[in-house]
Specification:
By secondary structure, the chain is mostly beta strands. It has 1 helix and 4 strands; from the N terminus they run E-E-E-E-H.
Length: about 60
């Protein structure tokens, strides 16, 4: 699975519990986007989560 290259956010595991309390495994996947960003002064395609994009932790390349 992809990880955010800025904050390191990745897949989280847990347990899904139904109404009758049957338990099964599940995953929460982060909202990862491929973005062309400026890295060390050069444009490069990186994987970034939507929260890092929203909080302007990434400078987009034009």
């Amino acid at each position: 699975m992809a990880k955010c290259e800025i904050c390191g956010k990745g897949v989280t595991f847990g347990i899904k519990v139904s109404h009758s309390h049957r338990r099964s495994n599940r995953t929460w996947k982060p909202n990862i986007r491929k973005v062309k960003a400026m890295v060390a002064g050069t444009p490069k395609t990186i994987s970034v989560c939507s929260r890092c994009l929203r909080s302007n932790k990434v400078t987009r390349a034009n």
